[in-house]
Amino acid sequence: MFIFDVEGKEWGMKPMNCPGHCLLFGSTVRSWRDLPMRLADFGVLHRNELSGALTGLTRVRRFQQDDAHIYCREEQIEEEVLAALDFMKHVYDIFGMSYKLELSTRPAKALGEVAVWNRAEKALASAMDTFAGKGNWRENPGDGAFYGPKIDIKVSDSMDRVHQCATIQLDFQLPIRFDLKYKSDKVADAAAPDGGGADAPKAGFERPVMVHRAMLGSVERMFAVLCEHYGGKWPLWLSPRQVMVVPVHGDQFGYGEAIVGRLHGMGFYAEVDTSKATFQKKVRNAQVEQWNLQLIIGKAEMANGTVNIRTRDNKQLGEMKLDEFLDMVVKDRKEFK
């Protein structure tokens, strides 16, 4: 952590979202009816990494995580984990990345009761069977965190390189350390008013289970992974250079500006090349700069209200009415590479 002194008190810059979410959960009395309770946070985090460990965007000192924590009852674990896995699949299908699942189980120096660990691991395994099918994931014995078992999601990019981005982890310890509890719908055991353990809440209350969930992990690191995955050839929906309008002659500059205005109004990033370069040079520049689509407009296109479409790979899609083109890219923007 980055630690510094403020008027005689020690302060630290937030390195993770987990404690803050625990404070939010514990800020008022919770009921079993409130669960599952899901908290998400994109707040900025700081970690004082050693200078020798810093590497581009993959390891930095200031970053953000698409972090979420789910507080649930033990019997809700399987349902919540399955929902997180479905969310993960939705995200990585959009990016066109494959993944493999591993269940990391109780390590030798685990905290908490073995019976609770066994039930949690069984719930995770059942969720993975439902999600991926039996035999389509592997077990990684003893590699869980000390505070609970976890699902490791190994993502493969377009070059079959493996990255650890998404994560789903169970945590039994933070709820104890922050004394998190909720009013139970179960009848308290009079013979065990403390719930049957030094770490248990008082009678009438139960501890929630905490699920740590991230789809991208560090957003900066995920951006670096995507740069490598796409090799600089961003798909249209994600590209910072979507449409370049290339007029054949200066007489078509006004028509080009009108096209760009309509594209901007629809949420696309577009430019028109009004430079003094030759037409061939403009087309070449657009290809080198990896613009997904080039709209060639000449005298005929301006007269007909059309555009002549080329892709980044110089594939010619032909002439099309401007309105038809706009309808096509809005409908199929994920299909264009």
TrEMBL record:
Residues 1-235 form the Aminoacyl-transfer RNA synthetases class-II family profile domain. GO terms for biological process: threonyl-tRNA aminoacylation. Pfam families: HGTP_anticodon, tRNA-synt_2b. Keywords: Aminoacyl-tRNA synthetase, ATP-binding, Ligase, Metal-binding, Nucleotide-binding, Protein biosynthesis, Zinc. Its EC number is 6.1.1.3. It comes from the Eukaryota. It catalyses: tRNA(Thr) + L-threonine + ATP = L-threonyl-tRNA(Thr) + AMP + diphosphate + H(+). GO terms for molecular function: ATP binding; metal ion binding; threonine-tRNA ligase activity. It is an enzyme of class 6 (ligase). One of its GO terms (cellular component) is mitochondrion. NCBIfam families: thrS. Belongs to the class-II aminoacyl-tRNA synthetase family. This is threonine--tRNA ligase. It comes from Triparma retinervis.
